[in-house]
Amino acid sequence: MKNSIIDNIMKHLRGFDAHVILYSGVRNLTRFGDNEISQNVSSKDIYAYVRISDGEKVVKFVISKFDGDSIKSSFDNAKKIIKLTKKADFIPQLTKTTVKIDGKSHYDESAFLTPYQLIKGLKK
Fold this sequence. Notes:
Elements: H1 2-10, E1 17-33, E2 36-53, E3 58-63, H2 68-84, H3 115-123
């Protein structure tokens, strides 16, 4: 899925220098009270943080919906905004590398426990 998101974003970058960071993560929250679960919430988030430049102006925006129409709409809005933006005093150089972080070495195993497994661990 992540490759198709990047591919869809790349289609709209013609004519711009761009910096794209794709973030994907899972957040879990389990609250306990009176020896029982009072709340359990889990969410998976995917965001693309995008910075485009035409060489003189810069616009930054975030994409959180990745269907074709939403991505196109985000870029259409950014293209309108960049036309109205003042010339930038400084534009950071774009990196020419791709950095991939091995997510398996940066996670807490408790993030994958069920609420029942969390309770069992607390009662010990």
